[in-house]
Amino acid sequence: MKRYIIKDLSRLSLLFMTCFLLPSCEKYLDVKPDQKLAVPESLDDLQALVDNYNVQIIESDALEVSAGEFTVTDANLASLSSDFHRRMYQWDAYDLFPEGSIASDWARYYTAIYYANAALEGLTKIDRNNRNATQYDYIKGRALFTRAEKLFHASLIWCVAYDPKKASSTLGMPIRLDTDFNKRSFRASLEDTYKQIIADASLAVTLLTDKPHIPVEPNRVAAYALLAKVYLYMADYENAFKYADAALASNSQLLDYSVLDPINPYPIPRYNKELVYQGLAGYPQILNNVRAQIVSDLIASYDLNDLRLDLYFIKNNDGTYGFRGFYTGTNSIFIGFAIDELYLIRAEAAVRLKRTDVALKDLNTLLVTRFKKENGKTTYQEVKDIGSEELLARILLERRKSLVFRGIRWYDLKRLNRDGANIVLKRIVEGKEFVLQPNDLRYALPIPSDIIELSDIVQNPR
Q1: Which of 43, 251, 379, 455 falls 20 to 30 Å from 346 in CA-CA distance?
Q2: 199 within some domain
Q3: 338 has which bridge partners?
Q4: What is its main location (predicted)?
Q5: CA-wise closest residue to 38 among 64, 6, 62, 72
Q6: Domain containing 43 — which CATH number?
Q7: Is residue 269 in a domain?
Q8: Alpha-carbon distance 411 to 162, whole Å?
């Protein structure tokens, strides 16, 4: 059977996902190709695969809808055109994702992984030499980064929190390392899933460069950032510190929020100097700044001189707040890597490793750029002379305040509750209280029902 790589897979992503999960797809693939199909024969062809930004940078809005940082009135819930986000909002056990959609979250992640695998397979048929080494290594590094990043973010949606003591017996994600549709998928352990993520990202570090780039094209700093974030989630603080430190050694630039224009509807500039890698999620109806009312305790946590209060939020006519501080310059949700998060990763890892001097310096370096200035002087009061427990609590609070609507709160809730934080989420819909307890099995969202029906992979328990 002759296989064809499709330059625009968006229309066929569900077919690809079906083929990943079924024992044979020859009858679907042995079709006459049309002009949109091409066999990759050169590095430029493979470059086109990894440069398909519509596939590579798209993430799921589930990481934000589920995270509990906003509430929606009954009237606004009733006005939604789709019921899936309502069910996701109230943490229903099943049916949170549309079925049969080529744009479903599951299909998006595994289509990007398919692209990466296609590029990696194509490279094995091309000799690397002195003339093509730079492009060859870039394509390989970028494909490995994509496979690692997509598998990691998918695990945040469909797997429970990574617990080093239980990971070998915990359900992970299907690991796809080639484009062979005839291979049946199965869920690897969470431990093996993360071994693969780390292996791919670590190899990407050796292949990518530090050269300037636009944030939709990963470089070595992005691979370092991915590893730092993965290791923090795994509670491996030594390696989280190591890779955050490596990333910041190459790029430590922070925006001065005092020069941003609060009159701008979206005050954070697109492709600003803090961006390391830009992943985007859509802006579903439930998250628009009128419907999604930011929880009051988060708003109350900002100092009056804290510029994030004005730049991140917009006050609605009813006195509630909506979010507008996207690191995209638009209303697209930023789910990528940025310098401010790296400072907070290194600070948290440092305080957990008893390196409080580093943690204090990182926290103050970040926050001084977030406060108003009067007569040329900052109004920020430097944090100093506090114990390690208090410092850790402050760093975790600043993570929540700095990284709003980036898909990170869900990540933090899972890992912090694993470690005993006991954070309980509550929402009220039509007079009924919905509660998500710490470490609830619903922290692993249900795999779409059609994927389960088409395959032998195991659904998340409830």
Answers
A1: 379
A2: yes
A3: 275
A4: membrane
A5: 6
A6: 1.25.40.390
A7: no
A8: 10
What is the pTM assigned to this prediction?
0.92
Q: Is residue 197 a part of any domain in this protein?
A: yes
Q: Which two tokens stand for residue 232?
A: 């923090």
Rounded to whole angstroms, the Cα distance separating 120 from 115 reads 9
Residue 166 within a domain: yes
Helix runs in 210-369, H state only: 220-233, 237-250, 296-300, 308-312, 339-352, 356-367
Question: Directed axis angle between helix 356-367 and helix 339-352, to 10°?
Answer: 150
Type of residue at 288? N
Residue type, 370: R
User: How many helices (H) does the chain have, and how many strands (E)?
Assistant: 19, 16
Nearest to 405 by CA among 297, 319, 295: 295
Strand 171-174 to 187-189 pairing: antiparallel
The residues, any chain, with a CB within 8 Å of residue 265's CB and separated by 6 or more, are: 324
CA 182 to chain centre: 30
Confirm if 417 and 423 have CB atoms less than 8 A apart.
Answer: yes
Residue where the block lists tokens 């670590």: 202
Worst-scoring range by mean pLDDT, 70-74, 78-82, 136-140? Answer: 78-82
Nearest to 365 by CA among 333, 390, 339: 339
Write out the two tokens for 383: 């944090």
By CB neighbour count within 10 A (0-12 exposed, 13-18 middle, 19+ buried), where does 47 fall? middle
Domain count within the chain: 1
Least confident of 2-6, 278-282, 367-371: 2-6
Whether residue 189 contacts residue 167, with contact meaning beta carbons closer than 8 Å, is answered with: yes
Compute the distance between CA of residue 412 and CA of residue 316 in angstroms, rounded to an integer: 28
Specify whether the CB–CB gap between 189 and 170 falls below 8 A.
yes
For residue 313, give the 3-state DSSP assignment: strand
